[in-house]
């Protein structure tokens, strides 16, 4: 017996037994998940482990490419993880992103929770508790209504005038990277709406403080870990790691500093902005609408409101430049409208072709490419002919749906704003429901109206003052390159629709144009 013990065999056997016992819960859970979704087609590797999806993300493949490939191979309902199901069915939108029965956000949103001063701070985007979301929304939803946002319209007007003056002074009659100017404008504007202060990007004409870089890195981080959030939590958000961190996100630090400055000035009444509305809600209900709530809301607004708005502007302009007939039609609509300068929201909101151009660009090139994942509540749900058990993560395959002829009509790969105008009321409603640019249902982006006001005011203002053309360096529109940043993403604007290879959300990094005064 003593000799056997020295050989180590009993010790090895014990280790093997203990390891096997430790793995049993994992094996049982995997088999249970596989059995629950056995009738739903999908790659066999994806049905066994989320590392299949993680590997796709880490290898630099865009999710929309994955989603379209899955749709073509497996059909409109496909399992893309052991507990994940993707639907290419417009009817699924009304179930997954409905306004009545809450399908809470999935655990993948936990990856985006920032660390501020050594503590996790839930933002409005990352909060998964629908009761808490409803309580916060009840107190601040009025601040995001179109009528309320008109109180902040002067911030947008001032920045439009400032940007166009800067362009007039230094950027006429030469090839310029317009994408850079547009992100400077969008970020300065959203910060002024959020807390009456900006990052000074337009004046500095540089991201010398790395504000934009930090925001992009944050979204890249979310993309990299969202397939395996439990692993991200284990490595980066365990109690020991969190205590060692101060602030994991530069924009979170900026938000915290601005809130502290406002509190030192006396809080409410100092400025007409969103922060003032939050502080008013805090004064009425300090226990439920805490300072952490204010910080989370502020982070959400500035993190989501800069890149998406500017990139949508850039993509819209790129499609207009490639389609001169559409550009001419939009310019005619703007000229005939007799707009003020800067244009008023009440004026530009009545321009149907402008609205259609932005929506069509967003349909062809959605900027947030990862799935809007939700969790099926108890007792489960019937979706697209399948019973989906409670706890399953589900999402709509917008990347396949955005090119579905039954929904959008013929030539779905073409930029045709008229499809939003030349349709009956029922068809328009179907298209609007399928447009998940700002998500949908109970968790639709609260800043949706901010983005629309910015875009609809800025694009007409630009076209009122300048003729925008492709740069001389571009030999032809068919060879027009639209470069995107995020781990070496590039898109080629060719005869086909914009084609992307890369790994994360689309941030337009280069849009070469030439401006001449009108």
List the helices and strands and how they pair.
Elements: H1 2-7, H2 9-36, H3 44-48, H4 51-58, H5 63-74, E1 77-81, E2 84-87, H6 90-96, E3 115-116, E4 119-120, H7 130-140, H8 146-149, H9 153-170, E5 175-177, H10 178-195, H11 201-204, H12 211-225, H13 229-236, H14 239-244, H15 250-264, H16 274-284, H17 291-305, H18 307-322, H19 324-336, H20 345-348, H21 352-364, E6 374-375, E7 381-383, E8 386-388, E9 393-396, H22 398-401, H23 405-408, H24 425-434, H25 448-465, E10 466-470, E11 481-485, E12 490-492, E13 499-501, E14 507-510, E15 512-517
Parallel strand pairs: 2-9
Antiparallel strand pairs: 1-2, 3-4, 5-15, 6-9, 7-8, 10-15, 11-12, 11-14, 12-13
Helix pairs in contact: 9-10, 9-25, 10-17, 10-18, 15-17, 16-17, 18-21, 18-25
Keyword list:
alpha+beta, transmembrane helix, 4-stranded antiparallel β-sheet, 4-stranded mixed β-sheet, 15 strands, Cytochrome_P450_monoxygenase, heme, 518 residues, Cyt_P450_E_grp-I, 25 helices
What does this protein look like?
Helix content is 53%, strand content 10%. The protein is globular and about 85 Å long. The chain has one domain: Cytochrome p450 (Orthogonal Bundle). It is of the alpha+beta class. It is built from 25 helices and 15 strands. The strands form five sheets. It has a four-stranded mixed sheet with strand order 1-2-9-6, with helices on both faces. A four-stranded antiparallel sheet has the order 13-12-11-14. A three-stranded antiparallel sheet has the order 5-15-10. A hairpin with a 2-residue loop joins strand 7 and strand 8. InterPro entries: Cyt_P450, Cyt_P450_E_grp-I, Cyt_P450_sf, Cytochrome_P450_monoxygenase. Belongs to the cytochrome P450 family. GO terms for molecular function: heme binding; iron ion binding; monooxygenase activity; oxidoreductase activity, acting on paired donors, with incorporation or reduction of molecular oxygen. Keywords: Heme, Iron, Membrane, Metal-binding, Transmembrane, Transmembrane helix.
């Amino acid at each position: 017996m003593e000799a056997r013990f020295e050989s180590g065999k009993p010790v090895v056997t014990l280790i093997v037994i203990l390891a096997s016992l430790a793995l049993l819960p994992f094996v049982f859970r995997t088999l249970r998940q596989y059995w629950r979704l056995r009738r739903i087609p999908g790659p066999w590797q994806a049905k066994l482990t989320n590392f299949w999806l993680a590997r796709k993300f880490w290898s630099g493949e865009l999710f929309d490419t994955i989603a379209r490939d899955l749709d073509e191979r497996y059909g409109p309902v496909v399992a893309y993880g052991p507990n994940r199901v993707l639907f290419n069915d417009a009817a699924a939108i009304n179930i997954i992103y409905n306004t009545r029965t809450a399908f809470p956000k999935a655990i993948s949103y936990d990856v985006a929770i920032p660390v501020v001063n050594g503590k996790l701070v839930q933002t409005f985007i990352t909060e998964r508790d629908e009761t808490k979301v409803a309580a916060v929304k009840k107190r601040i939803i009025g601040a995001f209504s179109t009528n309320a946002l008109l109180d902040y319209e002067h911030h947008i007007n001032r920045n439009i005038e400032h940007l166009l003056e800067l362009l007039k002074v230094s950027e006429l009659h030469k090839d310029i990277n317009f994408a850079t100017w547009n992100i400077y404008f969008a970020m300065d504007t959203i910060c002024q709406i959020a807390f009456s202060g900006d990052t000074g990007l337009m004046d500095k004409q540089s991201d010398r403080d790395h504000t934009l870089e930090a925001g992009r890195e944050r979204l890249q981080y979310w993309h990299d870990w969202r397939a395996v959030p439990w692993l991200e939590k284990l490595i980066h958000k365990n109690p020991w790691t969190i205590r060692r961190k101060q602030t994991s996100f530069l924009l979170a630090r900026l938000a915290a500093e601005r809130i502290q400055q406002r509190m030192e000035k006396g809080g409410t009444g100092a400025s007409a902005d969103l922060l003032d509305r939050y502080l008013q809600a805090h004064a009425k209900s300090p226990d439920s609408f805490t300072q952490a709530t204010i910080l989370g809301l502020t982070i959400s607004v500035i993190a989501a409101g800069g890149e998406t708005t500017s990139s949508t502007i850039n993509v819209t302009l790129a499609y207009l430049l490639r389609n001169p007939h559409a550009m001419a039609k939009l310019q005619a609509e703007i000229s005939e409208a007799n707009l003020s300068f800067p244009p008023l929201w009440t004026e530009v909101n009545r321009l149907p072709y402008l609205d259609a151009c932005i929506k069509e660009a967003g349909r062809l090139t959605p900027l947030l490419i990862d799935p809007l994942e939700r969790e099926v509540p108890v007792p489960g749900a019937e979706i697209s002919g399948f019973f989906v058990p409670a706890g399953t993560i589900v999402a709509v395959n917008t990347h396949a749906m955005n090119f579905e002829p039954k929904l959008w009509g013929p030539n779905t790969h073409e930029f045709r704003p008229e499809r939003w105008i030349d349709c009956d009321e029922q068809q328009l409603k179907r298209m609007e429901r399928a447009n998940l640019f700002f998500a949908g249902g109970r968790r639709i982006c609260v800043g949706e109206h901010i983005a629309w006001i910015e875009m609809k005011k800025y694009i007409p203002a630009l076209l009122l003052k300048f003729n925008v053309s492709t740069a001389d360096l571009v030999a032809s529109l068919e060879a027009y390159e639209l470069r995107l940043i995020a781990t070496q993403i590039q898109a080629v604007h060719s005869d086909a629709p914009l084609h992307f290879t890369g790994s994360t959300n689309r941030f337009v990094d280069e849009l070469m144009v030439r401006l001449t005064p009108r």
